[in-house]
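Go through this one:
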Amino acid sequence: MFPNELDLKDGIPDPSTLDVTRMLNGMIEHNTCNTARLQGIKLESLILEMAKEKGIKDEDLIIYQGECHNHLRNIWMDHIEIFLGRKLQEYLQNDLELIPSNLRVACRLSELLIQIDKEYNFSANYPKGHGDAFHNWLKRFHPSKRFLPTIRVCGGSRQDSAFEGAFPVYDSLDEMLAFTNECLLCGENILQRCLFLALGSMEVVAQLRVASILFLAVVVPMRWLAGNTHKLSHRQWGERSMGRAIDLLYSAFAKIQGNGSLFLDYEFIMTIFEPLYSKLPEFEEYMNYYKEEKEGNVVGSFNAKDRVIVIDEAMHELFWTKLQCCVKTKQVAFQQLCC
């Protein structure tokens, strides 16, 4: 098949050496559901039993169980979203009781983002939404403004998408509210009234700000590590090495638990994984690109020459906002993070 690469044959193992006991000191990786975990435990037991039959010493009978870090990350973010939604509901309980139930004002982030997708997404085509009208309004009143597209959040197993979706909403909050206000002056619409009430709430804005920071500081780097670990063997980095990333994450949030102001401190929260940069220069290169060089379109143009450094500009507004409605979210953000 490859006549000019005769050395390939030397890399094919001898059939007599193929043995499941070669998995000793290795890792069985699976997702986080009970069925997959049980399968991993049964496979481990089978391998250890076969190894004992071959006379392998007890101290060498070691197999590690590993879980997919894409699954783990989504489980973490799902519970964080539930926690933030519950805290917000408790905090706004008296106000929510005054709002008619038919407006369906949501406190959970993913539910809010589904409503936002229906109303503002250019391609949603939801019959009661106004994505095309919003796009035209932006082109008329805010041409050449940086634009982060609305993320479609459909639930399922991608729970971290709710945090990804929060960032564009926080960055376009003023425009969304101004457009919706103009629409409501012309006539009532249940979806628009719902979003006008929600996005006009300082507590909801604080939740969007918290979720946006979690996306940039935790989801983006952990996504890269989970998706690229299999390419980093030359750096002596593998599945078991992901424990280092989790340790860094745990230590950082233990400090935040004692001092909530660190969460809004760019120099702290956005450098959680910097200790890994010396070992993983590819990781450092990607994070620097994402935060400082990643480009995006502006309102009204898809030309490459008009593109701007969207993440860097949006992060500046996220951490060093001058908008009064966002400045006031600082204390509320601390309260949402507290147990």
